[in-house]
Amino acid sequence: MALSPQFLDELRARVGLVDAISRRVKLQRKGREHLGLCPFHNEKTPSFTVNEEKGFFHCFGCGAHGDVIGFVMRSEHLSFPEAIERLAAQAGLAVPQSSPQERARAEKLKTLGSALEAACAFYEKQLAGPPGRTALDYLHRRGLDETTIARFRLGWAPERNALKSHLLKEGYPEALLLEAGLIAHSEERNESYDYFRARVIFPIADARGRIVAFGARTLGEATPKYINSREGELFHKGKMLYGLAHARRGAAESGRLVVVEGYMDVIALHQAGFNDAVAPLGTALTEAQLALLWRLVDEPVLCFDGDAAGERAAGRAAERALPLLAPGKSLRFVRLPAGEDPDTLLQHQGAAAVRELLKEARPLVELVWELEIAAHPADTPERRARLKERIEATARRIKNDAVQRSYRQELWERYRARFGRQGFKGSPGRPGWGGGGPAPGFTTPGDFRNQHLRHQQGLIAAILNHPALFNEVGELFGRLKLADRELDDLRQEIIKTWAPDIDSDTLKSHLPPGYGSILDRVLAAEVYAAVPFASPGQTLEAAVKGWRHGYQRLDRERLSREILEAVREHAEQMTDESLNRLHALRREIESHEAETLELDRDERLLGKTKAE
Fold first, then answer.
1. What is the DSSP string of 182-231?
2. What domains sit in the chain, N to C, each tagged with a CATH number?
3. Rounded to 5 degrees, what are φ and ψ at 465?
4. How far apart are CA 282 and CA 294, in angstroms?
5. What is the largest CA-CA distance in the chain?
6. What single-letter DSSP state applies at residue 398?
7. Are 497 and 510 in contact (CB under 8 A)?
8. Which of 36, 476, 533, 559 is the most buried (most CB within 10 A)?
9. Would you say residue 605 has pLDDT above 50?
């Protein structure tokens, strides 16, 4: 869109900056400027200023800056041409067309849009009248109220050529109706007929709410159950999302977009208060649709049906998204209970259940790992080698170098937690997953198990050598899960024997008889070499820091093992019990990650305080 500076200046002059912004932001006049809370980031103290005289807004908190066009683009998630058309309509200005061809095309599109709008109004009227009684009853049985039906402009297409007759009487030529996809032509009978017949109509709007096509559902036995308009000048189903015009404002407020599979899922979610739901139009998510989603939010949430088809759709979306990932731009996934879709889940369990599932949306990398594990069993060395090759190939598909490195490191950590460092070359974050045996500096499976045991022994030894450590980590020590029965018995005896102000020698000597052998193994030089913070010569501060990090490491490894086992169990059984176990473990790992972040933050603050 090539527009002259004169037109843009006139547009800015006609649309007052303060008037436009005050529709979204409560402004107070402060001298020559207006002040309010920034709509682009969360703040409690106003730092957003609007200067009508100079024609710009500026936020001193997040740095957002621009004129009225920029504000509309940013606040309503519009492209430059879309913002210009929106503002021009408000100002009563015609957007100039730069050539006769462009003017002719714009007029043609306007006429097609007019025919589609007239068809939409006709379908709405049919649904509200006697011809649509059966369809209206069906929508009511599906739980839709009149407000929602009107908001999404649902309609009914009668059986005969009622639409064609109506639009011809309204002055729309048959050729235009053919081009708009509202009628079709039969070569056999040499006549045209309504494209949609005896179907519930779901109008499809573009991002600005203009009708560009229709989806339709049969109430009888006709196949397919759903059909869409044919693609044309206005409608490209791979580049559009159903419900986007309604979801834009909701996404701006929630910072989220929920992507579901069908029209009814979108409509039911909006009726239940989830005003940020959209759906692809009968196809797998395309690159263009992903780009559209990422224009609005950083991590759209994909919430497909809880069946095999829904899982395949999630897998296809993950495959398609991988090459396109960029820093901050990814996907999250919700797994619905078996046999449910968003619409039925709302009916059976209510909005609260949907809200909880959305909170538990898992990251793309987790789905990628689960898909690889499910597709490539790794119960033998040969199969593990194949899995490593697949993981490396998956990481290489990501074009962005920074994201590719992060995925390689994350997938390496998951592999290591599951199988140990078996046969890798290089280091986490670097390319190269070798297959010819352990590289220098890496461990064999037996060495990994020994290190794991040394680490557990170190946590016990640290308490024995620094009893005051128990004051800081006693709760975690009580929650510590040790597979070695003898070591865990010692842990429990330490808890029973410990007392405030007890010293190391007293603690060791008051343990019951029979622990001499395990104490010798725990308090050995090789343990201190592997776990330095456990040695008697360390300061209490170093022991506290090392112990907390050691506990987090062990707990993360345990959770990783358990969640992989739960994934396999659910894939095999698909029961509510297996699903609930999986959800519980995911909540636990999220809590674990939050505790790790809090620990790191506290240590940074402590270090900063000491430096000061």
1. SEEEETTTTEEEESS-SEEEEEEE-TTS-EEEEEEEESSS-SSSEEEPPP
2. 5-91 (3.90.580.10), 101-235 (3.90.980.10), 239-366 (3.40.1360.10), 445-606 (1.10.860)
3. -85, -20
4. 20
5. 103
6. -
7. yes
8. 533
9. no
Gyration radius of the chain over CA positions: 31
Cis peptide before 224, with omega less than 30 degrees from 0? yes
Helix (H, G, I), strand (E, B) or coil at 59: strand
Local structure of residue 92 (DSSP, 8 states)? T
**Which amino acid does the sequence have at 47?**
S
Identify the residue whose tokens are 């834009």.
Answer: 248
Q: Is the pTM of this model over 0.70?
A: no
CB 246 within 8 A of CB 270: yes
Contacts of 515 (CB under 8 A, 6+ apart): 490, 493
Instruction: Decide: 368 and 322 in contact? Cβ < 8 Å.
Output: yes
Strands 211-218, 155-157: parallel, antiparallel or unpaired by DSSP? unpaired
**423 and 392 Cβ atoms separated by less than 8 Å:** no
Of the chain, the end-to-end C-alpha distance in Å amounts to: 56
Instruction: Supply the mean pLDDT for the chain.
Output: 84
Residues 6+ apart with CB under 8 A from 484: 453, 456
What is the enclosing helix (H) or strand (E) of 599? helix 576-611
Token readout for 278 is 């959209």
CA distances (Å), origin 36, targets 227, 255, 507, 511? 48, 20, 62, 66
Q: Please write the tens of the pLDDT for every residue from 500-527.
A: 888 898 888 888 877 888 898 899 888 8
Give the tokens for residue 258. 């929920």
pLDDT digits (tens, 9 = 90+) for 177-223: 999 999 999 888 889 999 999 999 999 998 878 999 999 999 988 88
**β-pairing, 56-59 with 48-51?**
antiparallel
Per-residue pLDDT for 600 more than 70? Answer: no
Asked if residues 89 and 210 have their Cβ atoms less than 8 Å apart, the reply is no
Q: Distance of alpha carbon 224 from its chain centroid, rounded?
A: 31
- The one-letter code for the residue type at 165 is S
433 and 372 Cβ atoms separated by less than 8 Å = no
User: Which residues are registered as beta bridge partners of 310?
Assistant: none
Note whether 564 and 418 are within 8 A (CB): yes
Sheet bearing 211-218, strands edge to edge: 155-157, 199-205, 211-218, 226-228
Provide the token pair at 493: 């005896």
pLDDT digits (tens, 9 = 90+) for 476-485: 888 887 878 8
Tokens in use for 139?
């929508």
Q: How confident is the model at residue 588 (pLDDT cuts 50, 70, 90)?
A: low
Beta bridge partners of 36: 48
Q: Which amino acid is at 519?
A: L
Helices and strands (DSSP H and E) totals, the chain: 26, 16
